[in-house]
Amino acid sequence: MNEIETLNAVQILQQYNTHSMPFQVMCEDQEIYVAKSIFLPEPPFGDLINEILAVYFLEIFGVKTAKPCLIKISQEVFTSFIESGGECNSKYEKFNFEDKLFFGSLFIENATELESYSTNIKSKYDFNKFIDPLNLIKIGVFDSWFGNMDRRGSNPNILLLEFNGGKFDFLPIDHAHSFGYQSNYKNLNPHLMPIPPNKTILQTPISKSILTFVEDDTVSNLKDEILTSLEEASKNMDFIFDQVPKSFGFSKKGKQKVKKVLSDVDRNELVSNLYLNYLK
């Protein structure tokens, strides 16, 4: 894993009218990123902390994610955007750009949002269109482990990436509402983190149909693969925590409690078995 980069935005291209009101920006490396901030008056900035942690943990799970970074947007760049006719939410009018870091994700071209989990994969041919169909199952297990309440059948929050040759892969996005909506990390309660069975993407038709086309030994081995990922996540937790800027307010006690919850052996054993409940 690489340390998270801090980049300077050189141009704001647009502001998305979604809940978090992120900017699309061009940075000094000439790449385009989606830059998200938060309008709380003081830390902890849980939504941004969760985004950073999730991307690094998903990498350990072997799931593709958009490259993360931290982005500085100067007042000058923002003013230039407004003067050139750019439109943005009024909350940015009093936003102190010089003192804030944005969480950035590399803008992924040629990606479409997974519109529905209701579609069944009906043949081995369709199954083989995906580079690794089990990545969708891993994402569902990850969400249960990480308490991500915002990805469900009615809100996919997954992009489909198409590669040369017509193959597809899953790319999860938006992990702000994790830990069961808890932002007081030092008092984190794991009993508030489980996703209701009717909300998890593991119970959706597409997930269940994927599991029907997987060989029995692969299904069995997935549990060991997940447990290995959870153990690796525990080993790398201090490094991952260090990627969160101090200004985001991720306290020492908060880190200790998050580590205790996410490294709990008994809890992780239960999480690793979850997908087995959805086999047809």
In short:
This protein is an alpha+beta fold and 280 residues long.
Produce the secondary structure layout.
Blueprint (H helix, E strand, L loop, with lengths): L4 E11 L7 E5 L4 E5 L9 H16 L6 E5 L2 H9 L18 E5 L4 E3 L10 H4 L6 H13 L11 E5 L5 E5 L32 H8 L3 H20 L1 H5 L10 H11 L2 H9 L7
Parallel strand pairs: 1-4
Antiparallel strand pairs: 1-2, 2-3, 3-5, 4-5, 6-7, 7-8
Radius of gyration: 19 Å
Give the structural class: alpha+beta
Number of strands: 8
Total number of distinct structural domains: 2
The general outline is globular
CATH topology of the largest domain: Phosphatidylinositol 3-kinase Catalytic Subunit, Chain A, Domain 5
Continuous helix count: 9
Question: Based on the structure given, which CATH architecture of the largest domain is correct?
Answer: Orthogonal Bundle
Unreliable residue stretches: none
Beta-sheet strand percentage? 15-25%
CATH class label of the largest domain: Mainly Alpha
Taking the alpha carbons of the first and last residues, their distance comes to: 36 Å
Order of helices and strands: EEEHEHEEHHEEHHHHH
What percentage of residues falls in helices of 4 or more residues?
A: 25-40%
Q: Strand order within the widest sheet?
A: 1-2-3-5-4
Let me know the largest β-sheet: 5 strands, mixed, barrel
Mean pLDDT score: 93
